[in-house]
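Entry 14. Structure prediction run on the chain below.
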Amino acid sequence: MNIEDDDHNLNCLLNNYYDDNDGENPLDAFHIDSNYYEIEQISTTVLENTQNFKYYTMHFNIRSLPNKFRELKEIISRFHDIKINMHCIMLCETLLTDNNYVFYTIPGYKLVCRNRQTGSRGGVAMYIRDDLNYIIRDDISVNIDGKFESIFVEAHSKTVNCIFGEIYRVPNTSEILSISYYEAILNKTLCWEPIKISITSNIKIKHMFLS
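Output returned:
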């Protein structure tokens, strides 16, 4: 969800839902249990639950990697300081081009990206940790320039065997078609476990409850 665009609609939806359902949180139906942590607090959580964490990933709707590159490197560095080295960092709305992406490499990671070929926005990318061998899985991805963008890699090492995916649905495009694209991707990945997919859907939450 794009918070800047949908914050007002979401607040209205939640307020109405609370009134109609005796204060029940509508997100409870999805069994979401998500706590907020500062980066420095995460190391304690990870140490206490080491057996539950096989892969470390981050996702950002970064809205211009060139403009946020310094901040992204600072976040990665802060995680590195607490001995958490992300296996994969997934980004959407990178605003990269085929001419400038080479300027945004990060030591310790390989950059894989799909840049929009028309217009000046969009784009999806991943930073994959150097110790992972990977292949790009174009057979899984669905890309409709200016409407729906995705990138998938299959990563391997002695301790990692996983598919990482980043999906970005462009706002104000057909929701029905987008759902069919999601289904096509899921059908291609059903046999894989584990798989880590980050999605920016730009579908208003109220549509999910009213449909």
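The chain is about 30% helix and 25% strand.
Filed with the rest of this week's runs.
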